[in-house]
């Protein structure tokens, strides 16, 4: 459908792209990844026709339509939500007008045999066929389904779009794009303004979509769920593999070892060649050999490898000062903005060392409760911080609070103390501020760069209770990993308001779900919470189906009982199958763990090891053990799911 042929892009003497070529095929699900500044957004703009390359070409098949969603866009606020979303159906609406007009003209005609009359009949038939093909009969139902899936309420449909925040306006634009159903979606960070439920809805939509998708995202879970092909922009070139993001990382790690060995061999060859040239440059007897080596050097295709910031991986929060056992005690918290009730009679207790997530749809009060805990908002009810609690707060607008006249380096230097002052450059590099960048003033930074800088300041403050409101929105995958590892090792208490499932996974041990002005506690991690939510929704659906069946005739009721018996047999068979699979994998895990333990003892002993293949066998064993653990987890999840069905 779309071909990129030898795309080059240069500006200011810097080559961003170096002869990039690839195809976008029907039904491709491409995750476009790379470091900040690698050119992901620029490449999307080139594909969409908004930017032109320095050289090379973009070929688009005839009649192929492209839908592009940028990270930021200019929007107009002159319509209601429903009217604005309806703009996605311009062709359908025009067809309706044309059909209505022609039907009126046909009704007024008196000469039923004229060429004009017959021509209008044919034209109406053609337009009606096109109308049906575009789904004209059910476009309003599709519009409502999409808006509801993206988190809007039916009561929002009549509201002016000017009443919505910037994040919700982005959802309107996303809804319009999805409803247009282009042949190719180009989506630049579409999940930044979505909550968890809306992200899951968008995942399902894109997985079932008949067209192609090119997606830029820093959400690893979203990338893995949607994409079956990964293209990474690195050093101006691309790596293109038909695999999801996680598999691509594993493949790249293997390739990195191969490339590093090739790079080192090439460097040795270059060094030896240069030494030969330098040694015999002025000896006439060696002139031919010298010229040959010079030509050989010129022909070498130099291998490039990306630099690794290994120091960045060790970044951590300072030790947390000791606090009391109870960090937050909140009782009967109620908050309203005028007549609009946001929180109703909330009770909440947070204890020292807990790592908690606030999740739920946007507008349900997550940030409001966080700000109440910070004592930033008036409210009804009692809210107390515990003994010696020192709070560090990262708000969604935290970047706006920085001193714009300071440089990046000075912004960190003014709060850094002790040994940290000697590591400021390493810390800044961990969050992608390198070289001359650190001398830039804050006022010239982008929103994402300011957010990263604000996060660094927070990481250097000696606090014992961190409240983070959507901290990952402007962080790339590497920076998010650094922050997540630092939070996981933080000895204090953490409260995170976030929709980023991968960021929360393995970090939090308690989830508060905000819905209908209440906050419900769920013990466990984020994926345990989402799994239970899915089971609950399936159970509710089954109850509704059972209630509807109860109104059927006696004959249908009999049929239902027979069917239920067959279903019970199927459920029992599956439970037995997965119980057996769990037992078998547990035995395999036990055997593998014993073999790994034996290898550990052998490799850690003082005995000299001549067989170097043992190291490869050891790594292979560990990989098999990891795969078997993953298989065991999947089997357990399936077993629990079938057991839940048996109780319905």
UniProtKB/TrEMBL annotation:
Residues 2-260, 328-543 form the ABC transporter domain. PROSITE patterns: ABC_TRANSPORTER_1, ABC_TRANSPORTER_2. The keyword Cytoplasm does not apply. SMART domains: AAA. Keywords: ATP-binding, Coiled coil, Nucleotide-binding, Repeat. Belongs to the ABC transporter superfamily. ABCF family. YbiT subfamily. This is Probable ATP-binding protein YbiT. The lineage of its organism: Bacteria, Pseudomonadati, Bacteroidota, Bacteroidia, Marinilabiliales.
């Amino acid at each position: 459908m779309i071909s990129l042929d030898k795309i080059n892009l240069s500006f200011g003497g810097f080559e961003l792209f170096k002869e990039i070529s690839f195809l976008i095929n029907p039904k491709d699900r491409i995750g476009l990844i790379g470091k900040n500044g690698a050119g992901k957004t620029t490449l999307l703009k080139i594909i969409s026709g908004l930017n032109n390359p320095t050289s090379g070409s973009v070929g688009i098949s005839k009649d192929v339509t492209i839908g592009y969603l940028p990270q930021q866009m200019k929007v107009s606020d002159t319509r209601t939500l429903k009217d604005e979303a309806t703009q996605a159906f311009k062709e359908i609406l025009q067809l309706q007008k044309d059909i209505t007009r022609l039907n009126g003209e046909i009704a007024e005609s008196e000469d039923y045999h004229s060429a004009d009359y017959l021509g209008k009949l044919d034209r109406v038939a053609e337009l009606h066929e096109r109308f049906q093909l575009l789904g004209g009969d059910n476009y309003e139902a599709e519009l409502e389904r999409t808006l509801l899936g993206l988190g809007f309420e039916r009561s929002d449909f009549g509201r002016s779009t000017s009443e919505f925040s910037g994040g919700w306006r982005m959802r309107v634009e996303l809804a319009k794009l999805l409803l247009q159903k282009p042949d190719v979606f180009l989506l630049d960070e579409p999940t930044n303004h979505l909550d968890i439920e809306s992200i899951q809805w968008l995942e399902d939509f894109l997985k079932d979509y008949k067209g192609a998708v090119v997606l830029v995202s820093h959400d690893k879970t979203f990338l893995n769920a949607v994409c079956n092909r990964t293209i990474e922009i690195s050093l101006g070139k691309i790596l293109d593999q038909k695999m999801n993001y996680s598999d691509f990382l594993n493949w790249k790690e293997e390739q990195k070892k191969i490339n590093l060995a090739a790079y080192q061999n090439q460097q040795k060859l270059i060094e030896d060649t240069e030494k030969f040239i330098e040694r015999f440059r002025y000896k006439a007897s060696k002139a031919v050999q010298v010229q040959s080596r010079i030509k050989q050097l010129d022909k070498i295709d130099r291998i490039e490898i990306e630099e690794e910031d290994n120091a960045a991986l060790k970044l951590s929060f300072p030790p947390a000062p000791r606090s009391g056992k109870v960090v937050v005690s909140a009782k009967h918290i109620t908050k309203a903005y005028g007549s609009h009730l946001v929180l109703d009679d909330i009770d909440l207790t947070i204890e020292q060392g807990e790592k908690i997530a606030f999740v739920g749809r946007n507008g349900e009060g997550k940030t409001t409760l966080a700000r109440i805990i910070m004592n930033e908002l008036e409210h009804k009810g009692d809210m107390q911080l515990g003994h010696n609690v020192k709070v560090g707060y990262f708000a969604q607008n935290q970047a706006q609070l920085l001193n714009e006249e300071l440089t990046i380096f000075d912004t960190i230097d003014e709060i850094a103390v002790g040994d940290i002052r000697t590591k400021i450059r390493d810390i800044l590099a961990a969050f992608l501020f390198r070289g001359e960048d650190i001398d830039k003033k804050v006022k010239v930074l982008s929103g994402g760069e300011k957010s990263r800088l604000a996060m660094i300041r927070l990481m250097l403050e000696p606090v014992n209770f961190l409240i983070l409101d959507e901290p990952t929105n402007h962080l790339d995958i590497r920076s998010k990993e650094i922050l997540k590892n630092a939070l996981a090792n933080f000895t204090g208490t953490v409260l995170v308001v976030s929709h980023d499932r991968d960021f929360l996974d393995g970090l939090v041990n308690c989830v508060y779900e905000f819905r209908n002005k209440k906050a419900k506690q769920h013990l466990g991690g984020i994926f345990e919470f989402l799994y239970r939510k899915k089971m609950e929704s399936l159970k509710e659906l089954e109850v509704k189906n059972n209630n509807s069946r109860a109104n059927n005739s006696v004959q249908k009721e009999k049929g239902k009982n027979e069917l239920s018996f067959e279903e019970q047999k199927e459920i029992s068979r599956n439970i037995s199958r997965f119980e057996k699979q769990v037992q078998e994998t547990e035995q395999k895990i036990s055997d593998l763990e014993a073999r790994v333990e034996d290898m550990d003892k052998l490799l850690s002993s003082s005995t000299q090891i001549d067989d170097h293949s043992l190291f490869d066998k050891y790594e292979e064993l560990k990989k098999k053990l990891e795969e078997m653990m993953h298989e065991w987890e999947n089997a357990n999840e399936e077993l629990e799911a079938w057991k839940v069905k048996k109780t319905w």
